[in-house]
């Protein structure tokens, strides 16, 4: 509760810092018995090219495939779901993720009270010949981490293959306390971020935000960005970025 009309949330033209204190739940086409909080969408200024939302499901909830051309990544933050796709059923619990290519018939059935983070993006076909992306699923925390730019205290787990057929990446980024991004990044790729654990300071453009688990961020193209993990425990965020496509086709 923040008295006197205060909130930690700030929405700017090239970034947004979204704290849970302002979340409102609603329903969304296709998501049966589910409440969603849409964190990032093309309705923001500068029109993000993807969506990021939280889906709150119960053991009576389900969802089918999204609209034509949209690919989906789910990350299970709490609970337990079954994903049925391509004649297989995957049992996914906390910490597991799945990538479902666009136009792929599938269903997600929650087996308990579950909380999912969802990223969706219109699939942009590569102009070079490649295969169509395939379903990817697994335990995100079990993926091997790589030191970010040589820093063993900043580990990136890349959940999707970095091959031409994929036009998006979703990674887990873990920082030991006291570890920072080595410089202020400024790049064309957009990000959608959700802090899963820990806390720190996030610089976005000319503003510095204290960030804690449960906060989300949208970073538009060319938004200067920097993070330092502080506190007594490690910090991990899951984040989206667009990759692998011609600059002018984005
Ligand atoms: O992949 C990235 O661009 C990443 N280093 N950015 C970020 O964590 N803000
Ligand atoms: Mn970045």
Overview of the molecule:
By secondary structure, the chain is mainly β. The chain has one domain: Sandwich (Jelly Rolls), CATH 2.60.120. The protein is built from no helices and 21 strands. It has an 8-stranded antiparallel beta sheet with strand order 1-2-19-16-21-15-14-13, with no helix packed on it. Strand 7 and strand 8 form a beta hairpin. The protein is globular, with a radius of gyration of 18 Å. The structure holds (2S)-amino(carbamoylamino)ethanoic acid and manganese (II) ion. The site of (2S)-amino(carbamoylamino)ethanoic acid has 5 residues, from loops.
Task: Give a short summary of the structure.
This protein is mostly beta strands and 250 residues long. Helices cover 0% and strands 48% of the residues. It has one domain: Jelly Rolls.
